[in-house]
Amino acid sequence: MASADAAQPSPSLSMDSVPTTPRGRAASAGPAFGFGPSHSTSPLSLSRFSSSRGAPDSCGGWWRTSLPRLRSLLGSRGGDRRMRRKRVVGGGGVGAIAGSKGLHRRRTRGIVIWGGVVVFFFLMNWWMFSRLQDTPIRLLRRNPGASNVSVVSLSRPSILEKWNIYGNGQRSTGVMFSRLLGLAAHALAEAESRPEPQDLWEEPIGPTTWKRCADERNWELCDGRNGYIIVSANGGINQQRVAICNAVAIARLLNSTLVLPRFLYSSVWRDKSQFGDIYQEDYFINYLKVDIPIVKALPSELQSLDLEAIGSIVTDAEIMKEAKPSFYLKQILPILLKNRVVHFVGYGNRLAFDPVPFELQRLRCRCNFHALRFVEKIQETGALLIQRMRHHVSHSGPLEHNLLGSFAEKLTMKGKKIVPSRYLAVHLRFEIDMAAYSMCHFGGGKDEEDELEAYRAVHFPALTLLKNTTKVPSAAFLRSEGAQIYGGKLRMAAINSLYPNLATKESLLSSSEIEPFRNFSSQLAALDFIVCAAADAFAMTDSGSQLSALVSGYRMYYGGGNLPTIRPNKRRLASIFLKNSTIEWKEFEDRVRKTIKQTKQIHERPIARSIYRHPRSPECMCTVE
């Protein structure tokens, strides 16, 4: 069902919708001074703290629009008076003197009125601004297990001054949402005395119940007699995970033996981790041995082959994105049969999701949701993070057992009487497409710059053209503006103040605990995967994030309807935040809650969509009657 929010058009700020000619402005204007229904109901009614060309801005832009109208109005009246003066002068000397004195008094009175109106509106402007600036914020800090709530009162400048992320006195970021910030703080205070909404931590119940069943098999053993498949996967841990499971399916399709996948070194991620540093090799091999044979290395008689010379190397560029199984049967199988080995270099998302045979699709699910287990080093630290997020009181279900292995049993500490704590996980993405699009440098030197430039040329050609034809800010400047989190820690000041229990893996782990992972971005990403997948609720910040896609699929597969994922609807949220200067908290809260509830809805996998992100399909999960 379409929501009320979905039906509302997003306010347009394009100059096409703003009359720019005098005739256009006169036709669209309301009363002379900008008051009345015409002004308040305009589709371009923005916060006076907003800044947009052709719209009111934060430094008196309304006056630049209204005062010319006022002058025009007074000027036209002055013109009428001058015409009357001419007629009086023509009638006699006494009349001319009287008319002159009357005109002088009226002109003086007009100037006084005009000045009074200006002063009045400037005073109103100052008063409204001071109301926003001086509103106190009340923050709640609740200790888990404590029955009392301590209230800390902070003055407005203590927060808003932290938002001056530009360092040049600008405060537009703080002012823009200061009203909502104050309302949010008071709402949080009031919410402490009210029970939580029942559906806050729940996934909406659909008409059909699903259960995981990708571990069920219905085919014969594959002997792998046609040769060996080698895969060198590109990207970060999440792209590598997709590549691994696609390679497993290709090996089965071509009746071949899979060599344990390799990971290419990336100057962007700067992580030399290989398969065995992240996943348990023996578990992977043994779990899938009924599906395909997997070996750790090529037989000795094939190791000396010059694969490039015999044409057995197939690059990512030679395979179309999401190629159909028929491509592999027609183009790759003949090479395999001839040379006994094929090496896919830079392999990634190169196998379509439809049309794919049922059991082959199920094998991809089986690989992703069952065969890939993290090594004990990652499992142990992941369990430690979850334990601390939940204050040492937790449960261990199928998802925790899959992610943490034997360490799942250690989540609960005996003898501790602490009230259980639930947590929401949010992933702030940092992936190669974001890095390339930002046009920043991240410390990887010329190799990194070249790799990002090559990626940008393929995926963002408009940016490459812009960079080659226009003077753009330097990468150092862009980096200084905050590429990881825009504005850095200062940007997070407000949310940290409102929600003091905000944590990261760096804040939860000691320096000695996180040190073994510090130079391995893929292993750190594995910790992110564990904490996000096991969260009581998970919020995606970008639907294009590969980690968010895999985490949401994992929660869907193992959650049993109890692990909701909040998926962003940026267009709808933007339409709500655009009304930040006028919207009342009740309406704001209702609309945001409605949006969140709708984004938590789960549907059966659409045609051609990722089975890893949308496992709710007959190939991966089974319906319960």
From TrEMBL:
Keywords annotated in UniProt: Carbohydrate metabolism, Fucose metabolism, Glycoprotein, Glycosyltransferase, Membrane, Transferase, Transmembrane, Transmembrane helix
Top-level taxon: Eukaryota
GO MF annotations in UniProt: glycosyltransferase activity
Membrane spanning residue stretches: 111-129
Family the entry assigns: Belongs to the glycosyltransferase GT106 family.
This protein's record includes keyword Cell membrane: no
Subcellular location: Membrane
Keyword set includes Membrane: yes
One Gene Ontology term, aspect cellular component: membrane
Source organism (scientific name): Ensete ventricosum (Abyssinian banana)
GO BP terms: fucose metabolic process
Main location: membrane
Source lineage: Eukaryota, Viridiplantae, Streptophyta, Embryophyta, Tracheophyta
Name of the protein: O-fucosyltransferase family protein
Membrane topology: Single-pass membrane protein
InterPro entries according to UniProt: FucosylTrfase_pln, GDP-Fuc_O-FucTrfase, GT106_glycosyltransferase
Biased composition (Polar residues): 9-20
CDD domains to which the protein is assigned, alphabetical: O-FucT_plant
Record's compositionally biased regions (Low complexity): 23-35
Region of interest (Disordered), ranges: 1-35
